[in-house]
């Protein structure tokens, strides 16, 4: 009797479409994990792009700046010829903002944005963010067009009301 119960549960589980969907989701997650593992990690990409050493990466970690700012430090260091430690000192001890640091180093502040966007372009998730921005932009444009249409309709209504008041005065 137990064997029949187990067999019927097994048949039900194998034929259940929800089970197939879950298996597909698991397979997709496993694929994503494998792809991410195959891509060089953020620190490796930083080291390669900005010619940073393990010691420099560790100095950035020790300075308590966020990982997303590592690219900024690397770019400013590479472009200015200053050491990572010098730039970290300006940021942490002198409490300077990134724009001010760039100017002091004789660089245009856009160097900062280019560094961050350059790292994002290498990131696989950048494509998803770009798609999301496009969709948000389309939504904003649609709302803008709706508001424009509503203003035109209100203007037409005011014109008609004015014409009606004028007709009443004439009569």
Question: Quick summary of this structure?
Answer:
With 171 residues, this protein is mainly α. Helix content is 81%, strand content 0%. Helix 5 packs across helix 8.
Structural features, described:
It contains nine helices and no strands. It has helices at residues 2-15, 17-38, 42-50, 54-62, 70-80, 84-92, 98-104, 110-122, 126-170. It starts with a helix and ends with a helix. The model has no long low-confidence stretch (mean pLDDT 76).
Q: Extract low-pLDDT stretches.
A: none
- Give the proportion of residues in helices: over 70%
Number of strands: 0
Main sheet specs: none
Q: How far from one another are the termini?
A: 98 Å
Q: Class by helix and strand content?
A: mainly alpha
- Rounded to the nearest angstrom, the radius of gyration is 30 Å
State mean pLDDT (0 to 100 scale).
76
**Number of contiguous helices:** 9
Q: Please trace the helix and strand order, writing H or E for each element.
A: HHHHHHHHH
Write down the overall geometry: flat
Beta content:
under 5%
């Amino acid at each position: 009797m137990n064997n029949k119960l187990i067999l019927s549960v097994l048949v039900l589980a194998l034929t259940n479409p929800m089970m197939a969907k879950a298996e597909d989701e698991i397979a997709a997650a496993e694929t994503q994990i494998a792809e991410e593992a195959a891509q060089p990690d953020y620190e490796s990409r930083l080291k390669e792009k900005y010619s940073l050493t393990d010691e420099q990466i560790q100095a950035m970690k020790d300075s308590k700046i966020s990982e997303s700012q590592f690219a900024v430090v690397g770019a400013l260091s590479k472009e200015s010829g200053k050491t990572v430690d010098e730039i970290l000192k300006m940021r942490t001890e002198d409490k300077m903002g990134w724009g001010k640091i760039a100017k002091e180093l004789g660089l245009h502040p856009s160097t900062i944005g280019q560094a961050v966007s350059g790292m994002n372009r290498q990131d696989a998730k950048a494509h998803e963010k770009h798609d999301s921005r496009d969709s948000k932009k389309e939504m904003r444009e649609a709302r803008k067009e709706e508001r424009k249409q509503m203003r035109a309709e209100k203007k037409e209504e005011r014109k008609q009301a004015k014409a009606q008041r004028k007709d009443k005065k004439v009569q």
